[in-house]
Amino acid sequence: MSTQHRHAGLPITVLPESDLQHVRLLELPPELLALLTGECPPRLQLKSKEDLAGNAKDANLVLCTPDRTYNVRQVSTSNTLYLTQTAEKQDPGGGPPKIGVDAVAKCDTTIELLSTTKQSAVPFIKPALPVYSSNGNYASAVPVTKTELFSHIPLSQAECEESWSELACFESQHPPGCYVPSAKVKAEIWQRAVTAATADGINLTDPFPADDLPAFAMDICQDWPAELVSSVLKGASNLTPGGHFAIDETKAVRFTGLNLLQVKSEGRAIEATGFLRAWRDLLPEAWRAKCEFAALQGFYALQDGGSMIKYADSAPATTATTESKSLGAKRKWHEKFAASRKKT
């Protein structure tokens, strides 16, 4: 179908339905559009939940920037949209050719990106990795690299990294693969680190290089893999502006308390005041006042009027979306365009 009158203006031709390409448009949120049109556009990833063999475990798709995750949703349009391109048109009256427009593709659906709230990757990482126990044994599993592991988790790199650090996971060459150290391992290594730093008169919060260990931790590597020792210390640390790690008091208090409670509780309630004493003993004197149950929020339950405490893992396992600003599952383009014109 095309306009034929020589004075009708710009000639437009719509190809037959069988010749039209069928496409879907991707609608970008303003903040993502700004990133992609900036000086250093980030790498984007399309991901879904998969097992380590690459088999899909969830039909939902997400798009990830380095630090944010967007749910991908397909939306039907209420109006027909065409994609056009310029083309040379012959004048039916024998005049010189004119520039016209061909509608070469039709869009029946669009792809929306819905921003999600910050999520924990812990529920994805823990089931996927073997546990490294206090006797150096570990459950047998097919070795997987950190990069492979993250590629199967439907969350951004930053969200995966944060949970990796929270669990003190480490990647090893001998034995090969990635591991989650047990709570007992983390508690033992932390106790030795505090004891060594105190004995050497070293400030526990002094920064240390990302690819190295603080001086007080060197001897610990005689009994434990260096990658494991590093992961435990980094689990209680923050990254400094200079690219180093520094043990953070608040983070260390929580890290120590969670691991100790998990070790001592073992699925049963234990005496609360006794746990508090043991927790404080694992920390420098100046930090002990911060040992309060509130620091373990989300991972403990009090019983018998508060005299007993039990480890309770209540980490979220699902991804929630924030409120969408879209017009709904049935896209009304004329309404959206009208709203845009009113703003200009």
Automatic annotation (TrEMBL):
Q: Which GO terms describe its biological process?
A: DNA replication; maintenance of mitotic sister chromatid cohesion
Q: Which InterPro entries match?
A: Dcc1
| The organism's place on the tree of life at top rank | Eukaryota
Segments for region (Disordered)? 322-344
Q: Recite the UniProt keywords alphabetically.
A: DNA replication
**A Gene Ontology term for the protein's cellular component:** chromosome, centromeric region
Keyword ATP-binding carried by entry: no
Q: Bias regions of kind Basic residues — which residues? A: 328-344
The record's comment on protein family reads: Belongs to the DCC1 family.
Q: What is this protein called?
A: Sister chromatid cohesion protein Dcc1
